[in-house]
Amino acid sequence: MSTVVALACLRPEMLLAHETLPAVPVATDHGVDGSELLILLYIFILASFLGHQLILRVPPLLHTPLMSGTNAISGISLVGSLVAAGLAEPVICNVLGGLAVGCAMCNVVGGFAITDRMLAKFRKGSR
Amino acid sequence: MQGLAELVPMSTEWLYLAAAVLFIVGIRDLSSAETARRGNLLAACGMILAIVGTMQHGLIVQWGWIVVGMVAGGVIGLVMAVFMPMTAMPERIAIVNGLGGAASGLVGICEVIRHVILPPEGTSASDFSSFHVGVAGLEIMLGAMTFTGSIVAFGKLRGLISTRPMTYPFQNVVNIGWLLVMLYLIFGLVVGSLDPVFFFVLAGMALLFGVMFVLPIGGADMPVVIAMLNAYSGLAAAATGFVLSNKVLIIAGALDGSSGLLLSLLMCRAMNRSLTNVLFGAVGGSGGGAQFSGGELQGDPQSISTVEAAERLFDARRVIIVPGYGMAAAGAHFAIREMADVLKERGISVKYAIHPVAGRMPGHMNVLLADANVPYDDLVEMEEINPEFAETDVALVMGANDICNPAARTAEGSPIYGMPILDVDKAAQVIVIKRSMSPGFAGIPNELFVAPNCAMLFGDGKQVAEQLIETLSL
């Protein structure tokens, strides 16, 4: 049993292989049909509510680090930028994608680093 | 090229899932000062997983542009993070946020180019469904307006552009009309009545819209603007997620979007204004609310010297310091903390009263004072500290104005009427450190300054604080 779990951890695709194989391979990376669109909308809506609840709990003390941290998280558009920059063609996409990677990377690295620097300064008083 | 089914390998999906969980747990940990740093690290780990996962994407066949972009962006981001002083935090957040928006917008344009304008052989533009066209349009619009809006916000915060709102007649009509035209363009693109070239028109219009939208908003309303722009860049990222059917993008974008929106609403509530009033009201400028004049102040302010102020502080048992944007502008936070240390050594209790919209971004005062080594349990929120003013001997107002203007309680029709304020005037004595008698950002004279229990200590915040330290240490 444990080997199966270990294997699954290493090669998670094995677990789900039977689900993905019979599906007709989609011709693009945009294989969204109606049901998947709905799933994406569910995810968006649930994540928005979750975000709302999580952020409500953050005290005003930490609002700046919160903003700077979520700001860094929004640099997740890096994921899309990477694909655009690495496409086989057209070159214009590579250029724009490369630029986008630069912007998003600046956002991500700068955002997390400065948030950490900021949070390191918050200390509890002992006096 | 790899097999089509392997474009997004399962391992990537698992890494994305882990990344999404880490983002959520990370934000949860940000809710307490003790765990916040760990939360930020967790979110950063999530980002690394997302990047590693993306690297395995089947469509990525060349690495040149990726490496160049990552190295350049990473170095710039790191340099900014390490060398930017804490006082420059609002503008830093603005500019970096703009870059996030730009990245989303650029990805949107790439998607449009490669699917609609130059579809690869064997596929046609119709593979890109009308839904995709719509979200790509939204993505480009949000990304572009976040980019330029953030640059204008940066300029205002840095003082490169006048922080006074710039207004012209029918501004709101023009802005709303402009927005409607952009939405119409997206609609036209979706139903196919417009040529795809209009995507670029849309991008251009959105770039201009960002400028038009932020220019009329005054400097004191920047906390709301920064939070809003944060929300836009999150929504742009979520739209990118819809275009790419990428769930981690959608989750992270939604988290960021709701965080920005909620923060801007909280900031608005703290000013007792609606979001529309902040975004379209242009308070602090030549038009609208600033026309209100609360009349001249009755009576003369009493001015005291540093020595007198020091004496009053020494005679006090309880002192509350009320910081405002002026403290940030004067860079006086280190001096203030040193002064507080001197007082504390004498057994005087010192606390800081933090108004939710003090400064230029949510939580601005907290970050500055934390930077100056003030322990965060000395920073007390408005609701909690307001009852304490009545038992306070000296309230020391440092570069704050509108947030402690009693006109907010009484002067109906004033732009700040109804805004919750710090009850500074209830303290036995008030000392206001200020350059001149000029009104605060909202342009309303402050009755507090002529109140019988209030004394003005004129001068530059930092110099005054340093003189106070000197006098107190004698």
What does this structure look like?
The complex is a heterodimer of chains A (127) and B (474). Chain A is mostly helical. Chain A has a domain of 88 residues. Chain A is 73% helix and 0% strand. Chain A is built from six helices and no strands. Chain A is flat, with a radius of gyration of 21 Å. The N terminus of chain A is likely disordered. Chain B contains 17 helices and seven strands. Chain B is elongated and about 85 Å long. Helices cover 57% and strands 7% of the residues of chain B. Chain B has 474 residues and is an alpha/beta fold. In chain B, strands 1-7-6-5-2-3-4 form a seven-stranded parallel beta sheet. Chain B folds into three domains: 61 residues; 196 residues, no CATH class; 172 residues, TPP-binding domain (Rossmann fold), CATH 3.40.50. In chain B, helix 16 links the parallel strand 5 and strand 6. The chains are: A mainly alpha (127), B alpha/beta (474). Chains A and B meet through helix 2, helix 3, helix 4, helix 5 and helix 6 of A and helix 1, helix 2, helix 3, helix 4 and helix 8 of B.
Short description:
The complex is a heterodimer of chains A (127) and B (474). Chain A is an all-alpha fold.
Between the first and last Cα atoms of chain A, what is the distance in angstroms? 55 Å
Whole-angstrom Rg of chain A? 21 Å
Alpha-carbon distance between the two ends of chain B: 78 Å
The number of distinct helices of chain A, counting runs of at least 4 residues, comes to 6
**Count of helix runs of chain B:** 17
Helix vs. strand class of chain A? mainly alpha
Mean pLDDT of chain A: 77
User: What is the averaged pLDDT score of chain B?
Assistant: 86
Using CB atoms under 8 Å apart, which protein chain pair has the greatest interface?
A: A-B, 101 and 135 residues
The run of helices and strands of chain B is HHHHHHHHHHEHEHHEHEHEHEEH
Quickly give the structural class of chain B.
alpha/beta
Oligomer: heterodimer
Q: What global shape of chain A is seen?
A: flat
